[in-house]
Amino acid sequence: MASNPSKKNLRFGDCFFMGVGQTIGAGVITMTGIAIAKTGSGVFWAYILAAVCIFICKFPSLIMGTTIPRTSASYAYSNLFSPKFGAFYIGVSTIARVTMAFFGFSFATYFCSLINVNPTVVGVTIITIVFVMNLFGIKNAAKMQNIMTTILLVALSTFVIFGLPKVDFASITRPEVMFPHGANGIVDAMSLVIFAISGGFTLLEYAGSMDKPQRILPKAIFWSTLVAAFFFAVVGLVGSGVLPISEVAGKPLTVAAHTVYDGNPLFYNFFIIGGALLAIMTTMNSCFVLYYSAAIQACVDGWLPHGLAKKNKYGVPHRLCILFWLMGIIPILLNVDGQTLSRLSSGLVLFTMMIPNLTPILLPKLFPDQWKASRFYMSTPKLMALTIVSNALMLFFIVKNALGLPKNVLIIILICLAVVLLYILIFGNKIIEKNNLREKTAEFLRKADEETRANLEG
């Protein structure tokens, strides 16, 4: 089990900007054109409604994070349900690392709008560059991340500022333009973009490092998600409103950008390089650290080979990074298309979110005093109902994405999940006994109880 850092120095401002940075990245760049193809100019409402839905979906985890704040929260909370549940979270999370392939594909799409080169080579190359960058440690990667995020926000802001005056509001507010495929179209778009709007909830993974997480965590997640959702919605409004829908549907934002910047090569190239390409790079860069943090603990617990957690001289688990790098480049080398990768990414990431989202039903039993003192306290039946409704909604979006996958891809994913389950069923008890995982869970519960009681008394 991961333990809390000794220093809890993240304040609201730190968490807010971290949440915004985690959200405003590749999602708006990679998903907007695809969503426009599903619901026309209704992409504006798809982003807003997706933000509402992700709050409903993840509210149980938010309750858990404010009541028992932990670092590496998703794996820790999954383990509280049972060690095998934690193992399943790691298995699904590892499969979900194909999201790196989607980012690589999207980067190649934008890069090739500037230079006519082989997109497969570009996709593999950018994933490799980010992989190598992260081999030199979090500190060096973080410095690059701050620079890229600043440039990214400036570039996307120019797209909005120059683009809004050119939006044909009279046209895009017509029902047939906003909802060309009816309710199913906007729901389909929401099932895609909800992945893009969920970045603020990664703050749950850092709750143990926050100063007064009971107060800070809900506010930081709410405001960072709200700001990002509105920003995404406006970008979608510009992307769908400066040209006829038929010209931008399913296309990268480069098509709209030509009109937004009146063909000015300086602004257009800055948007592509400083906006689109850096957006994708910042997300890829932050994902490497987010991906391997829980996987390291899974190696310690015996669910993954211990050797995968071995670190290089910069403190980076380079073997895990190699695994994630391979999972990123293989789908690109196999020429998996962008829409398939987008549905895979959204569905699998939501699946990883759903697993720890079931644990809050145990709060009244495991932490009765802390639960009664929680700002979100409710009766056990209400907590149970909330957890069921939230996860049912998340499952709906997961199934929606799964049904949109090609049959051969869906079969491969189902086989991978079946292998994970069989591995846990066959070897789970042996791994649990060998690595004393029940004792570790008991120790985790004891420490969490002590720390949260101390916070309550303080």
Quick rundown:
Helix content is 74%, strand content 0%. It has 458 residues and is an all-alpha fold.
Keywords:
mainly alpha; Amino acid/polyamine transporter I; 74% helix; 0% strand
What this model shows, in words?
- The protein contains 22 helices and no strands.
- Mean pLDDT is 86; it is low at 1-7.
- It has one domain: Amino acid/polyamine transporter I (Up-down Bundle), CATH 1.20.1740.
- The chain has helices spanning 12-23, 26-39, 43-67, 73-81, 83-95, 99-111, 119-134, 138-163, 169-172, 175-178, 182-193, 213-241, 245-248, 254-260, 265-300, 318-333, 338-354, 363-366, 368-373, 380-403, 407-434, 437-457.
- The protein is mostly helical and 458 residues long.
- The longest helix is centred in the middle third of the chain and has 36 residues, at 265-300.
Task: Set down the secondary structure blueprint.
Elements: H1 12-23, H2 26-39, H3 43-67, H4 73-81, H5 83-95, H6 99-111, H7 119-134, H8 138-163, H9 169-172, H10 175-178, H11 182-193, H12 213-241, H13 245-248, H14 254-260, H15 265-300, H16 318-333, H17 338-354, H18 363-366, H19 368-373, H20 380-403, H21 407-434, H22 437-457
Helix pairs in contact: 1-12, 2-11, 2-12, 2-15, 3-11, 3-12, 3-20, 4-5, 5-15, 5-17, 5-21, 6-7, 6-15, 6-16, 6-17, 7-15, 7-16, 8-12, 8-15, 11-20, 17-20
